[in-house]
Design a protein that fits this description.
This protein is of the alpha+beta class. The protein folds into four domains: 146 residues, Alpha Horseshoe (Serine Threonine Protein Phosphatase 5, Tetratricopeptide repeat); 266 residues, Neuraminidase (6 Propeller), CATH 2.120.10.30; 90 residues, Immunoglobulin-like (Sandwich), CATH 2.60.40.2190; 116 residues, 60s Ribosomal Protein L30, Chain: A (2-Layer Sandwich), CATH 3.30.1330.60. Helix content is 25%, strand content 28%. It has eleven helices and 33 strands. The strands form eight sheets. Strands 2, 3, 4, 5 and 6 form a five-stranded antiparallel beta sheet that branches. Strands 7, 8, 9, 10 and 11 form a five-stranded antiparallel beta sheet that branches. The protein has a four-stranded antiparallel beta sheet with strand order 1-22-21-20, with no helix packed on it. A hairpin with a 5-residue loop joins strand 2 and strand 3. It is elongated. The termini are far apart.
Length: 654
């Protein structure tokens, strides 16, 4: 029995000695190694890695540290630094194993062990373990500045626990066709999801060179088209946008005709605007002051009416590092003063990735403040009728993670959101995803709008044409949007938020105008309206319908809402001073033919009277009433009868 106890004791001592050997910290000294040649190479790698580490070039540092670690995997300092480097990489899951090994080799090497381990646990979604490590770190007597940081990390973990326990119910899909084995991010879509533009650091980018800072390929911008619900193989964007350096997209208009890109320069970084000229993008042009400044501007989004530009800047006198600002378009079509959006949105920390939804009232942005679960999270806020932004809502896990989540684009119908993320099942180190929302998900927008899109064509040849498109609020007679169709494709797209009655007119020199009316005062559900517009020329017998000439039901007095469209008719008659025009009134088939005949005649005369009062010679105008003899729609439906109640003009001659 005594012998057994002695043997058992010897065994324990032997095991303890083995553990001591296993856990022994081996310094990088030549005397510790037999292979002097390999030691020199590994030590050179270590020294080079340390230089990168001091400069916070963590990718390059990690590459050198890996080589040194292959030679000596039992150095506490090296394992610690590798763990920290992984925390700044796209493979943060590997950080914990190196930090723990470093601690086992020498628990006194760094006072920040617990903090770094807490970060590693946070990225792994092990929030209770992270909180435990952060609390240990707090007990070590750190500075008040570090204490503030650690308490924020603890709060992030508490938020993370709540968000992970109550995830978004929508289905997330990897957009496999556009992703590569490299980093793909900053996905931006047109409002109808027909075009995707994103940034990639894949092989084959312009110049084919790698950034020495992180040894990844320089950024290029790529596009993909949605063809019958399937995204096409991505291609480099056409034009002069991609260079041999970094080129990334940071904003896109809802119709896809204006793109904003970021470039670093002597001003620390500015935003540039590019226009789609046919199918080629124009050369980037720096946005003017007060948007760009001598400080850094990183993100842009323009409201659907084109009159408000939201952007991100780190200029002084804000609430934190980077804040969201906005500018309003003035009467001279110049951007007015930059105004901070306020402390409801901005925090003492950084904000970025701003996106205003096509409804004009729902803002998505990324923030390191508010109730994040770590680094940047994506938030949503809505503006009320008085112009006040509501408390931002964290849009939730798994869109948001403890890593940097920047740039979120939502389709006009509010049903799909596009974002980039690093996930275990991804194709590359960062992939593009979309989420098809569940009805209960708070992240989606209410989408209280009509998206009107289509093509503008020559009415006779059916060839695409570039035309000016103007949208007017009939209630106020205010122009709420003014833009052009694409000259090569004829494409146009505009978002019309609910609650108003709109007049949309299409004009081009050598053509009569084309008029549409959208009364959305009582609309409650998202609408997508596709219309091909054939613009009538000015030849004899060409006809245009005036869909925004209004009378009270059964009356002949012009309503004030008709002013803007009547001015269009006046402008044409002024432009062509010898043009003679027939103005005709038309009705539905409600009431008698006699009543409708008189009504249609008198409405035509009311329009002519207005033009004559403006200075048009009465000899140039012929008025006719056709009652319900020339319907353009079915009089058996309410919508059909509405279309049949109209005023037209026809070119009679010159």
């Amino acid at each position: 029995m005594k012998m057994k106890n002695i043997l058992f004791g010897l065994l324990l001592v032997f095991i303890a000695n083995i553990n001591i050997i296993i856990a022994q910290n081996i310094e990088f000294k030549e005397s510790n190694f037999d292979n002097k040649y390999d030691f020199k190479k590994a030590n050179d790698n270590l020294l080079e890695g340390n230089d990168y580490y001091k400069d916070k070039s963590y990718y390059n540092a990690l590459e050198q540290f890996k080589k040194a670690n292959d030679f000596n995997p039992n150095n506490a300092a090296l394992n610690y630094k590798m763990g920290v480097c992984y925390l700044f990489s796209n493979d943060k899951r590997k950080a914990l194993q190196y930090l723990e090994k470093s601690f086992s080799l020498d628990s006194t090497y760094s006072k920040d062990y617990c903090f770094q381990k807490g970060r590693a646990y946070q990225y792994l979604l092990q929030f209770d373990n992270a909180i435990s490590e952060f609390n240990k770190y707090l007990s070590t007597g750190i500075s008040s500045k570090k204490e503030k940081l650690v308490n924020k990390k603890i709060q992030e973990c508490e938020t993370g626990k709540q968000l992970v326990a109550n995830p978004i119910k929508g289905i997330i899909h990897n957009l496999e066709i556009v992703n590569s084995e490299y980093a793909d991010y900053s996905p931006m879509i047109t409002a109808d999801e027909s075009i995707l533009i994103f940034t990639s650091r894949r092989e084959g980018t312009t110049g084919g060179q790698k950034d020495p800072y992180d040894s990844e390929y320089y950024e290029d911008i790529y596009t993909s088209d949605n063809i019958d619900g399937t995204w096409s193989e991505p291609q480099p964007i056409q034009g002069y946008l991609n260079t041999g350096r970094h080129d990334s997209n940071v904003g896109l208009s809802l119709d896809g005709q204006t793109l904003y890109i970021y470039r670093s320069n002597r001003n620390n970084g500015d935003v540039y605007e590019c226009k789609l000229d046919g199918d080629i993008w124009t050369s980037p042009k720096a946005l003017p002051e007060p948007i760009n400044s001598k400080y850094m501007e990183t993100s842009v989004s323009v409201s659907p009416d084109g009159k408000t530009l939201y952007f991100v800047s780190n200029r002084p006198k804000g609430f934190g590092g980077k804040d969201i600002y906005y500018c309003k378009l003035n009467e001279n079509d110049k951007w007015g003063d930059a105004i901070n959006i306020g402390d409801k949105i901005n925090t003492e920390y950084d904000e970025d990735g701003v996106f205003i939804h096509p409804d004009g009232k729902t803002l998505y942005f990324s923030s390191k403040g508010h109730n994040t679960m770590g680094d940047y999270d994506i938030f949503k806020s809505e503006i009320d009728a008085e112009g006040n932004w509501q408390e931002p809502i964290n849009i939730g896990y798994p869109i948001n993670t403890p890593e940097n989540d920047i740039f979120f684009f939502l389709s006009a119908d509010g049903e799909k959101g596009y974002f980039s993320s690093v996930k275990e099942d991804g194709i590359g180190n960062k992939d593009i995803y979309y989420i098809a929302f569940n009805e209960e998900d708070e992240a989606k927008a209410d989408a209280m709008l009509a998206l009107v899109k289509g093509k503008v064509l020559d009415g006779r040849t059916k060839e695409p044409i570039e035309a000016n498109i103007e949208v007017v609020d009939n209630g106020t007679q205010e122009v709420v949007a003014n833009f052009k169709s694409n000259y090569k494709t004829g494409d146009y797209m505009v978002s019309l938020p609910f609650g108003k009655d709109y007049a949309l007119t299409v004009e081009k020199n050598g053509y009569l105008f084309y008029s549409l009316n959208f009364n959305l005062t009582d609309s409650t559900r998202y609408q997508e309206i596709e219309l091909e517009i054939g613009l009538p020329d000015t030849c004899v017998n060409s006809t245009a319908i005036m869909r925004n000439i209004f009378f009270d039901y059964g009356k002949t007095t012009l309503k004030t809402e008709s002013e803007h469209e009547l001015q269009k008719v006046y402008n044409i008659l002024t432009k062509y001073p010898t043009m003679r025009m027939e103005i005709s009134g038309h009705t539905d088939n409600v009431s008698s033919e006699k009543f409708n005949q008189r009504l249609s005649e008198n409405r035509a005369k009311a329009v002519a009277k207005y033009l004559i009062k403006k200075g048009i010679s009465k000899e140039r105008l012929v008025t006719m009433g056709y009652a319900f003899s020339k319907p353009i729609a079915d009089n058996e439906t309410k919508e059909g009868r509405k279309q049949n109640r109209r005023v037209e003009f026809k070119v009679l001659g010159y």
